[in-house]
Amino acid sequence: MSDAPDRLFGHAAAERSLVESARSGRLHHAWLLAGPSGIGKATLARRFAGWLLAGQPDDTMAVPSDHPVARRVAAGTHADLLTVGRGWDEKKQRHRSEIVVEDTRQVAEFLRRTAAEGGWRVVILDQAEAMNRNAANALLKILEEPPPRAVLMLVSSVPGQMLATIRSRCRLLRLEPLDDPALEVALSRLLPDLDAAERAALVRLAEGSPGRAIALAGDQAVALERLVAELMQRDPRGDAADPLRDAAIVETVLRQEQGFETFLGLLSSAISGHARRAARSGQAPRPGDPDWVAAWQGVRRLRDETERFNLEKRQALSSSLTLLSGSN
């Protein structure tokens, strides 16, 4: 049986920082947990919330899973914990692309109430960089006049996109990707049915992120990585455009539930690596070679705009393959 999905791997130093701050009696009212996506930032925030709401029972932030507070935190039913993120769009039946002011107003309403259990109140704001201007300004008012015995945990993979005035009012806690041995241990527990070769491939692909590794495993990322490697080995000056071949690649990608995001993420990383190696070599591009920097920018733009505006994924994939054809 695998570990619970909320289990935290690594980040012992970050845990100690939070525990020591709470134990000192001067716990800062707002924390910014920053670092790459999928490495455990939100998990750490929930873990800290459970420990704080359980009365800080020890110095390791380890609250037993059968503890009443731990059960309510895991179920999202603890009255003194509020988790806010991108809300659900009933009309489009998907999460909104932004955190809007109605979402952050929940925070103000929550903090105006007295703690239900007489202790701390905790707010976790996930994907905080997704706040639009109105939502950010509403949150800023709360940070400027924080209520007593309340702590806000802002979780962000791209903190530079947040208002500087919000960042300045938070204590920054930066989390780093796991190293390969730690990620290997995490995957052996989270995905125990993987064979050694698959696990090693995911460690290579996941860039220190257990969350990314789990997503990649579900999307047959090892097979998609091989597909990307084949694309990168094409000679753009000698391989003639083949619409049928490219169409087959597009269909292969779209058959995976998250294939679009996974494939373009892998392709973006592969192009970025190729561009860095080309720059380090100092060799001038050959006639007909792709502009690798422009190709990298193009793939990222296609991925971001397709997801943001709910555009046609098939067309975006076809366009991304065209970027590798050279002479663009």
Features:
five-stranded parallel β-sheet, 328 residues, 51% helix, single chain, 2 domains, alpha/beta, Rossmann fold
- List SSEs in N-to-C order: HEHHEEEHEHEHEHHHHHHHH
How much strand content do the residues show? 5-15%
Given the structure, what is the number of helices? 14
CATH architecture field of the largest domain: 3-Layer(aba) Sandwich
N/C terminus separation: 50 Å
Largest sheet, in brief, is: 5 strands, parallel
By CATH, the topology of the largest domain is Rossmann fold
Taking Cα atoms only, what radius of gyration do you get, to the nearest Å? Answer: 22 Å
Give the rounded overall mean pLDDT: 88
Number of domains: 2
Element layout with pairings:
Layout: H1 12-23, E1 30-34, H2 41-53, H3 68-75, E2 81-84, E3 88-89, E4 94-95, H4 101-112, E5 121-125, H5 133-144, E6 150-156, H6 164-167, E7 171-174, H7 180-190, H8 196-206, H9 210-218, H10 221-232, H11 243-254, H12 259-281, H13 292-309, H14 313-322
Helix pairs in contact: 2-3, 4-5, 7-8, 8-9, 10-12, 11-14, 12-13, 13-14
